[in-house]
Specification:
The structure is a single chain. The chain is mostly helical. The protein has a single domain, classed as AhpD-like. The chain has helices at residues 14-25, 32-37, 41-62, 64-78, 81-93, 105-119, 126-135, 138-160. The radius of gyration is 17 Å and the shape is elongated. It starts with 13 loop residues before the first helix and ends in a 5-residue tail after the last helix.
Amino acid sequence: MSYISKINLETAGEKEKKVIEDHLAQGYKLSNEKLTLLHNIEAFKAIEDSSYTLDRELQRLIGKRAGDFFEYAISEENECLVCSTYFHKLLKDNGIDFDNFEFTKKEELLIAFGRALAKDPKAIPDEIYKELKEEFTEEQIVVITAMGVLMVANNYFNDILKIEP
């Protein structure tokens, strides 16, 4: 059971209702994580809005599929039930079985980097950095890393407050 309640859509304040309306208008859904974050709009913006903005940039630079694999690998390594459930469903809806799929060389590298980043950011093998620099530009590496950090933040938020999927 979650430590923090979800906001009530019927009794939410006008500012919160506006954020929800804008979020839904962009084609996003409301999750338990979002309804919890909406206890404070700035917290919602910091974690949700920035994640979506950066995810769009990640997709522009490396592609949606590669970005999804990277983010899923982080969530799986962190054992975040909320995020890994979300990505598992997303990949399944696209006909991808993460455990029995042939990844491209870049996707394998992103998965390795995502897992290493989530496991111990201070102990990422030098070989991974070397391969990243061979496959991606410095701009891409910065965006990939920043998105990884936001995924870890999402995972921690969900796990710390025991948000239900």
